Amino acid sequence: MKEYPVQRAAALKPLPDPDMLVFGKTFTDHMFLMDYTAGQGWHDGRIVPYAPLALEPSAMVFHYAQEVFEGLKAYRSPDGGVQLFRPMENVRRINSSCERMCIPQLPEEDTLAAIEQLVRVEERWVPAKPGTSLYIRPFVIATTPSLGVHAAHDYIFCIITCPVGAYYKEGINPVRIYVENQDVRAVRGGTGYTKCGGNYAASIRAGERAEEQGYAQVLWLDGVHRRYIEEVGSMNVLFKIGGTVITPALTGSVLPGITRKSCIELLKSWGVPVEERLITAEELFDAAEAGRLEEAFGSGTAAVVSPIGEMGWGERHVTVNGGQIGALTRKLYDTLTGIQWGTVSDPFGWTLKL
Amino acid sequence: MKEYPVQRAAALKPLPDPDMLVFGKTFTDHMFLMDYTAGQGWHDGRIVPYAPLALEPSAMVFHYAQEVFEGLKAYRSPDGGVQLFRPMENVRRINSSCERMCIPQLPEEDTLAAIEQLVRVEERWVPAKPGTSLYIRPFVIATTPSLGVHAAHDYIFCIITCPVGAYYKEGINPVRIYVENQDVRAVRGGTGYTKCGGNYAASIRAGERAEEQGYAQVLWLDGVHRRYIEEVGSMNVLFKIGGTVITPALTGSVLPGITRKSCIELLKSWGVPVEERLITAEELFDAAEAGRLEEAFGSGTAAVVSPIGEMGWGERHVTVNGGQIGALTRKLYDTLTGIQWGTVSDPFGWTLKL
Ligand SMILES: Cc1ncc(COP(=O)(O)O)c(C=O)c1O
Ligand SMILES: Cc1ncc(COP(=O)(O)O)c(C=O)c1O
Questions:
Q1: Which residues in A13-43 are b (16+ Cβ under 10 Å) and which e?
Q2: Predicted pLDDT of residue B188
Q3: pLDDT, mean over chain B
Q4: I need a surface site. Which of A52, B3, B147, B249 has the fewest CB within 10 A?
């Protein structure tokens, strides 16, 4: 496995209080950097002290958002070891995002090696308290100082890491969501299946409006028909209707979530029927009103699963499972977190011990 | 008018050869910077030496592309003066982009004052050779070092400038374009009407593919029906069909171009009928095949107008006006460039002399 040169930070930061960790605000002592230069390819992978990036004001990332990212976590297992969850899925997905954004492909094995080595260097930052983890954020940005709208010739691949607290500090409380009828996050033919910055920029306004109205997230509809459900906030979404788990098919505007994929694989292994298909907001709300919507939840690396307790769509309001987390949602949460933190066995070989 | 403090560069760069100017690669000696801090608003507007921006790797612009930009030019008039073309339109449009991106509104008068003052400071960079100009690039980026998907609390507003050569060095040669059937640039409910980075990132792949196949630009179709014409590359598009100029209506997914608006106003003042409406690729190609498509051109700050000589759409190929620039396109080009460079009178009050 590739071993990168490490330049150690002169002074290490004090570790934060594990009870006070806020997502994405405290970063560790080091980061991984690798450069891309046209003609030369990716080169000079290295671990260096965490520090600002100095870029020309004309760097393309500032103007044309040629940028992609990933998100995964390192978990502290009971034996004191550290493990990753399906990290190669993230590496493959960043390359799929790169392809859409005309960013050169990353070398997959070496990219995984970079993630592993950085986490080993930052090992003391992987918190041990239940539910905590080290969040890993790989990203690529276009740095060519040029204002032409073209693929850049120069990129930086960077990995930063930050310790994160337990997502659920006071038990798992189902959230209120509402169907967004105005703003669109992604459309067929666009970039919805990638983790490119532009998708998130487009989603901010609806998210802020939802929060102002007391909702935790928005339920996105497709951009073509404005009828089919796509995702919930920055999560995939799954519904248990009449005993079957239904989740929007990956039609190009939905992010292929790794938690979603893992939920589907677990559910199938348990004999629960799963359908990946188109589902309209109408079908969903009709099912809820007919008492057939048994459970609903978002899935993603941050929350693992996030049960939905209440949904609004214009004048229609429904509650799900009396506002309580459903039994299957709970079982998925327990199983996935058990595998991720190494407290239950991993029959699928999803974890990678460092 | 607001006057910002100026920190002069210690050494000034040599001016480039006006015959060798490439768009967007050579930047001037100074730039304008202004900071936004939540609670404090926009503050500390200043002109400083052109230099790299140092941002935290976790700065939101690198991850969620919360960023908007503008593009306008300063023109050297025959009397040796320098003038801008409808700059307040750009200021208003950046604020419309900011609104969609949840970026705080810029103070409009002070933003215009910043553009004016920077151009005055960089006056020696405004080239005098026919067709050359100083391109002005205002942009805003989110700098808060935080990975949560939310509107940032901190932003930088920056203006950089670069001298640009004549767009048409060897006369105006009409270009070949083709209808993009796969990738989508923008969709109703999305961000198409803004100059946010994500729109351009989404458009790069189709542009690169078009170039590989010998086309200069892509003709974008709407994301919902994939039938209606929206724009051509990074320009608006206008067609003269049976004596009437038709241009796609501003339905939310099309950028409201200032050149487009100026063309419409000029055409109307000349008594040429103009329709802003939906137009399908089918209608366009049918008109071309029936010999009714008299002229076709893109409009934008870079090229002013860019005549289209040939169009492809799957198996269908048509030429426009025998591959020559049309008379009305030529008249628009001459009039607009005349007003911009101050060689013809400006009855509309579009120019702002510095
Ligand atoms: C838009 C969007 N959908 C879904 C997900 C869930 O993906 P994953 O399960 O791989 O974290 C994410 C990221 O976490 C996301 O940003
Ligand atoms: C997508 C797009 N459409 C159209 C235009 C034309 O706008 P304007 O005439 O204001 O330059 C531009 C920018 O130049 C653009 O980026």
A1: eeebebeebeebbbbbbbbbbbbbeeeeebe
A2: 94
A3: 96
A4: B3
Residues in chain B with pLDDT values less than 70: none
- A26: tokens are 């405290």
Alpha-carbon distance values, A322 to A244, A257, A319, B28, B215 (Å)? 19, 27, 6, 63, 58
Q: What pLDDT is attached to residue B10?
A: 95
Q: Report which DSSP code applies to A312.
A: E
Give Cα B262 to chain centroid, integer Å. Answer: 13
Written as one letter, the residue type at B210 is: A
Domain ranges of chain A: 18-164, 175-341
Fold observed for domain A18-164: D-amino Acid Aminotransferase; Chain A, domain 1 (3.30.470)
Tell me the pLDDT band of A171, cut-offs 50, 70 and 90.
confident
Residue nearest to atom 2 of ligand 2 (CA): B234
Same CATH topology for B18-164 and B175-341: the answer is no
pLDDT score at B169:
81
Return the residue of B nearest to A233 by Cα.
B149
Query: CA geometry: angle at A293 spanning A287 and A296, to 5°?
Result: 130
User: Atom 5 in ligand 1: which residue has the minimum CA distance?
Assistant: A235
Catalogue the E-assigned strands of A236-292. Answer: 236-241, 244-248, 274-277
Q: Does A168 have pLDDT greater than 90?
A: no
**CATH class given for the domain over A175-341:** alpha beta
CA distance B280 to B85: 32
Report the interhelical angle of A327-340 vs A258-269 (nearest 10°): 110
Q: What is the pLDDT of residue A1?
A: 87
Question: Which phi and psi angles does B31 have, rounded to 5°?
Answer: -145, 160
Ligand 2 pocket, CB under 6 A: B 71, 195, 231, 234-236, 255, 257-260, 299-301
A214 to chain B, minimum CA–CA distance in Å? 15
User: Helix or strand or coil: residue A77?
Assistant: coil
What is the ipTM, given to two decimal places? 0.97
Q: Which residues pair with B31 in a beta bridge?
A: B48
Whether pLDDT at A138 is above 90: yes
Number of Cβ atoms within 10 Å of the Cβ of B191:
27
Query: Do A205 and B101 count as a contact with CB atoms less than 8 A apart?
Result: yes
Q: A11 CB contacts (<8 Å, ≥6 apart)?
A: none
